Amino acid sequence: MFELHHLSATEQLDGVRRGDWTPRELAEHYLERIARLDPELGAFTEVTADRALARATSLADAESPVSRASALWGLPFADKDLVARAGVPTRYGSRTMADVVPDASDDIALAFDVAGAVSLGKTATPEFGLAGYTEPLAGRPVRNPYDRTLGVGGSSGGAAAAVAAGLLPFAPGSDGGGSIRIPAAATGLVGLKPARGRIPSAAGFASLGGLVTHGPLTRTVADAALVLDALVGATPYRHATAAPSWDGGAFLNAAVRGEGRFQVGVTTDSPWAGDFEVGLDPEARAALDLATAELSAIGHGVEGLTLAPEPDYPRMFSRLWQAAAAGVPLDGNAVALTEPLTRWLIGRGRAMTARELGEALQFAALFERRLITRFAPFDAVLTPALAVVPPMLGWYDAADAERNFAQQVRVSPYTSMVNVAGLPALALPVARTAEGIPMGVQLIGRPGREDVLLAIGAQLERRLRWDRRHPPQW
């Protein structure tokens, strides 16, 4: 039986603009699914049904200031719980923020308002978005729709679970070290981390070193491009770059056409390898091999790529992450109420000297140059998205913060370097394990060339048809 969520976000947008259904009918459909299915998944921390229905109804009003031509007009979504929305509880995944109700909305929330989208609530995140998995002590663990004993990654874990299970047509995430691409890979979604500066980058707290940016989690490549176009078009900020020859649909055009033959480098090298265990599960290797073979069959030039060792990377990136945590607006007893990983990161960050922080920032700037130079011969670089099958809930050591950090590196050793270099990257769900668990790859682009990633992603999607794969809740 046909249901609205069976359509892609792009198809739902076309239908609501034609009048096949109203924004309110779309919102009601997803709110019903959330009420019925989310109790077993834990994707949402807050559902704002009354606000959503009022917003959806107002969009269809003849007096609405939001045009039907707006980029995401009438499409439901949910804010990640690191994003402030005025009047809606914003807990940042932390027990210390349980009673926070902001008076003003963050830039990214306002951008979705300008685009005409309808927020249904808040999706779950780890405490302050500082972990690559979503099992916060402040709420329920987020369960993987493909196997509820598994986690979904993080920090945009609630967003990913909601989209994968058909509780939302798309969802925004934020990514400071892989937080869009990790959960996308764990749940069979397309996850786009835009280039640095492409769209508003504030994520509730300042982004030290420019690591954090926002981006979409979707079921199709075209949907990711649709949301990116919307955020670029709703971003009249001087600090944000414009899309190449942006005409109101440049990225969607690239994704729909899916044209071009490109030179693609393939690597399993990671800058974490000097200090941490970096290895590939057979399932991760199989996904990379499949994507490599398909790219070659399409006609792209594919060749191996070796990265020079970066012995200082683990220490310097860790400093940046710790320094970012130091800025969490908590002091005294409130810090003692945070989770062990958060407390360790805050403590290390606040004990850091200005010289140590300066060295880390300088390293990041030079690493950016080195990585972009090494990638320069290629239009895109292919890596695994995750090094392992998504771990089971409870696998991460919640008590030993240093071991926890090492475990996170073991799962996703290929994502954070992209944030340091400010490059765009696209997670694509190319394969499944024998048990049906999604496995993905990561495509990394040249500075500002999301269009190339979307074109290659669209070509792979046509061959592998991951948009037809769904979890049991579908």
Describe this structure in words.
- This protein has helices at 9-18, 23-37, 49-59, 107-114, 157-164, 181-187, 221-233, 250-257, 282-298, 313-326, 333-336, 340-351, 354-375, 401-411, 416-421, 450-464; strands at residues 44-47, 76-80, 118-123, 171-175, 190-193, 213-218, 263-266, 301-304, 380-384, 425-432, 438-445.
- Helix 12 packs across helix 14 (401-411).
- Strands 4-6-5-10-11-9-7-8 form an eight-stranded mixed sheet, sandwiched between helices. Strands 1-3-2 form a three-stranded mixed sheet.
- With 474 residues, it is an alpha/beta fold.
- The chain is globular and about 60 Å long.
- Helix 9 links the parallel strand 7 and strand 8 (301-304).
- It has one domain (120-468): Amidase signature (AS) domain (Amidase signature (AS) enzymes, Alpha-Beta Complex), CATH 3.90.1300.
